[in-house]
Amino acid sequence: GYQLDVNTEYLYFNGAVCNNWDEATDMEVRIFWELNAGGGGADDSVFFDLKSWYKGATEDTTKYQTSTEGELVNNDGQYTAYMITFTLDYDLVANVIQVGDVLSFRLNLNTASSDVDNVVLNYVYFSYKTKVPQPTTY
User: Assuming Cys at both sites, which of 37, 76, 97, 115 could form a disulfide with 80, CB separation 3.0 to 4.6 Å?
Assistant: First the structure.
């Protein structure tokens, strides 16, 4: 896993949009993570920020999207596991995602909004719906 316990720590990863994408649905980034310190209160939460940059081979402008997602962890114990899904809007005005785009991602723990500031990321993946069934591996 990868520990995040400071707002300035980032996890970088990437993906690509192949020609099998259905070109009609949003894409997802899923993160599987766990608490590295137990929640202290009944309403404790954890928030992550995801920034994505992307462009195709012949484009001269880098497009981007930013989103924040959170999870209510209450007073759950250390090593309790969770999953959060970020959605990338494929037809966002002026930032449309297209076949052939290469994406770069930056994920960080939003410590300003989170009650628990110590997590471990176990797995991250980028996915989208395809025109025909594809084997899925996790």
Answer: 76
Residue 90 counted as domain residue: yes
| Distance between CA atoms of residues 20 and 17, nearest Å | 8
CATH number for the domain that contains residue 20: 2.60.120
Q: pTM to 2 decimals?
A: 0.91
Please count the structural domains in the chain: 1
Q: What is the pLDDT along the chain (138 residues), one digit of tens a residue?
A: 899 999 899 999 999 999 999 999 999 999 999 999 987 788 999 999 999 999 999 999 999 999 999 999 999 999 999 999 999 999 999 999 999 999 999 999 999 999 999 999 999 999 999 998 877 666
User: Does residue 32 lie in a domain region?
Assistant: yes
Residue type, 126: F
Q: Tokens 């707002």, residue?
A: 7
